[in-house]
Amino acid sequence: MALVAGSEKGLSSKDNLDSFDQLGFAPHVAGNKIERSMSTTVMGQSVSMPVILSPTGVQAVHPDGEVAVARAGANRGVAVGLSSFASRSVEEVCAVNDQVFFQMYWSGDRDTMLQRLTRARDAGAKGIILTLDWSFANGRDWGSPWIPDKIGLKAVVKLGPEVAMRPRWLWSFAKTGHLPGLLTPNMAKPGERAPTFFGAYYEWMQSPLPSWDDVAWLRNSWDGPFMVKGVSRVDDAKRVVDLGATALSVSNHGGNNLDGTPAPIRALPAIADAVGDQIEVLLDGGVRRGSDVVKALALGARAVMIGRAYLWGLAAEGQSGVENVLDVLRGGIDATLLALGKSSVNELSRDDVVAPDGFFRTLGA
Q: Which residues are catalytic?
């Protein structure tokens, strides 16, 4: 799983974390603000803090999966990204959170993609996230555990000893009366059964790679907020602006795309400088603490998207685990704002961050 892995040697996955550790702060010691605000807007949605729950596929680490994540986001005033490869349907998720961004890959033909857009709109999705940073690496999932295509005898024999060591997790599924599912209902064609994750993955792999004209067509097919996820180059960021997107996310898919791509935080300032006054710029990759969120905002991001952090919470405690992760991040953001003497996340600037020489990367300028 991408939850514990990266592509090839894992260089990008490692750099996503290490890069945040190389950044420091320039705090104040007096005159700090008593009250601090973390609220902002992202793709037309008012959120309580600058953190979005990033779309990730098949969240079957807990029986409630994406529904538990969506409920946690609603309870904490946070928008949720829902993967087209999710284990729960867009209708179920939008029913418990009215701030859902539906994520799509360039998968299938145009008619199929239009059907998915229409379904997401009818369900109540507020925006679309087109993920383009998962297209190149053949040697994905370095360090990944074995993932079965279904829960059969082979899976039970192979995974049984590990599951037996986690009786509480097993009991959470036993109470539901069904085993973890690997179906992707949002990839189902009208009147057809939902494909398995690997079935949906096969459709994506067989689809021709999109051109910029294709991306522009998809954007023009959706009449609401639209994000392109996966940008690391300035020239690509300018193309995203030209096609009329609402937002872009600086991302390398958590290190699960082309290994050796720099950490997003290194590429963020150059992209923010180039297009930040024309489009909302987000960052996705390596965020584990509230202080990481502040570093990204100070370097030009409007908000960050998190994946692994909340999935660990989901696996451990379901909805309450995700809520706990969000609470930890909120506390870290607040403490960092206090130390920097800021009353709002909107006051952050690059002067608040200390970076070593040669830290930043400008790609495709």
A: 253
If we measure between CA atoms, which residue out of 7, 52, 330 comes closest to residue 143?
Answer: 7
H/E segment holding residue 238: helix 234-242
Q: Which residues contact 337 (CB under 8 A, 6 or more apart)?
A: 33, 36, 38, 294, 343, 344, 345, 348
Q: Under 8 Å CB-to-CB from 304, ≥6 apart: which residues?
A: 50, 51, 52, 282, 283, 284, 287, 292, 293, 296, 297
Tokens of 86: 């999710």
> Quick check: 170 and 178 in contact, CB under 8 A?
no
Instruction: Return the structure tokens found at 189.
Output: 């064609």
198 CB-near residues (< 8 Å, 6+ apart): 149, 182
- CA-to-CA dists, residue 306 to 265, 285, 287, 313, angstroms: 13, 7, 6, 12
Burial of 324 (C-beta count, 10 Å sphere; 0-12/13-18/19+): middle
Instruction: Divide the 365 residues of the chain into consecutive groups of 10 and give the mean pLDDT of each group.
Output: 72 96 97 96 98 92 92 98 96 98 96 97 98 70 59 63 67 62 89 88 89 98 98 98 98 91 98 98 98 98 97 94 98 98 98 98 96
Cβ count within 10 A of residue 178: 9
Cβ(250)–Cβ(7) under 8 Å?
no
pLDDT (0 to 100) of residue 142 = 53
Q: Which residue has the tokens 């590990």?
A: 162
